[in-house]
Task: inverse folding
């Protein structure tokens, strides 16, 4: 009689420990309308070169192709299976395979980890369910997420871009009541940051402003990984909000013009800019220890002595600036 030989399979916790020793996992969670698509394009185009440096990449083409299916609440068939646990299993196996190929830093970039533009507009608020969502993703990666990266953007431009995005997807022109709700909404980036920090307390949390990093995906990746990064494909811009002439194909009652559609009036813009400034000041002051604001590493800080260009300014500079201002 042949004795049965027991087969021991590693638990997810044991597998996660192996992954943790071999690989850092960075969750780049967006936000939407903050050049995330351009960053993901840059990562795909440089995938081979980054792989030689030990940097792996999972983007929406992978994460939305069934990998994350079942992780977050939503309508689904009642099969009796624990879909969240099955999704965690797929993710853990994927991480193990990446680590086995020599990946030392895995960048997972998908802005839908935060939520959706449609839900933001429906609730007239920034990512109301982000805490639960990020907690689910952190758990699915076995609690081995080393860093979380969030891009933020000035609110009047974030909401204007979101409304333009919604317009191209049949959501119609926003009513004044919605614009007022967005202007005076109860949530700002500070609330989103606090929710994310509580959901992934063991990860380092970095906040990168759109205004600094939008057209610098190579610099953004260098900040994430601490490595030199390729500059090829760094200037390619994808998924920008259509300008007014293009948006007229979706709504005829938009204002005339050639530039960006800005549905908010001057007072609303001022209110949202002040809110964003308050958020940035809070971040610069340490964000209560929850997150770290990253500024442009290529920008030279002022020394004790001012640059010579500032010391030699005179009346001709003022006259030149007035002429330039008049042309706008």
Result:
């Amino acid at each position: 009689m042949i004795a049965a030989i027991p087969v021991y399979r590693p638990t997810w916790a044991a597998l996660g420990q192996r992954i943790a020793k071999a690989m850092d996992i960075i969750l780049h969670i967006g936000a939407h309308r903050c050049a995330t698509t351009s960053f993901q394009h840059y990562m795909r185009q440089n995938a081979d070169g980054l792989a030689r440096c030990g940097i792996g990449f999972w983007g929406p083409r992978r994460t939305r192709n069934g990998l994350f299916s079942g992780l977050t609440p939503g309508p689904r068939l009642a099969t009796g299976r624990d879909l969240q646990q099955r999704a965690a299993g797929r993710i853990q196996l994927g991480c193990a395979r990446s680590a086995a190929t020599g990946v030392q830093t895995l960048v997972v970039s998908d802005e839908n980890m935060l939520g959706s533009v449609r839900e933001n507009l429906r609730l007239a608020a920034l990512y109301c369910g982000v805490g639960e969502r990020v907690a689910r993703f952190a758990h699915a990666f076995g609690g081995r997420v080393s860093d979380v990266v969030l891009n933020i953007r000035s609110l009047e431009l974030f909401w204007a871009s979101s409304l333009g995005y919604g317009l191209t997807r049949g959501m119609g022109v926003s009513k004044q009541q919605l614009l007022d709700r967005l202007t005076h909404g109860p949530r700002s980036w500070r609330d989103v940051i606090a929710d994310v920090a509580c959901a992934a307390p063991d990860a380092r949390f970095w906040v990168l402003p759109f205004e600094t990093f939008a057209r610098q995906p190579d610099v953004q990746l260098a900040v994430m990984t601490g490595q030199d990064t390729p500059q090829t494909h760094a200037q390619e811009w994808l998924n920008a909000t259509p300008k007014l002439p293009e948006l007229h194909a979706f709504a005829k009652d938009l204002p005339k013009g050639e530039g960006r559609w800005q549905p908010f009036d001057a007072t609303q813009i001022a209110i949202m800019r002040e809110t964003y400034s308050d958020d940035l000041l809070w971040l610069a002051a340490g964000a209560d220890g929850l997150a770290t604001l990253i500024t442009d590493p290529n920008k030279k800080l002022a020394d004790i002595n001012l640059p010579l260009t500032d010391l030699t300014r005179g009346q001709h500079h003022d006259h030149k600036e007035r002429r330039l201002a008049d042309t706008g």
User: Anything to note?
Assistant: The radius of gyration is 23 Å. Residues 135 and 199 are 5 Å apart (CA to CA).
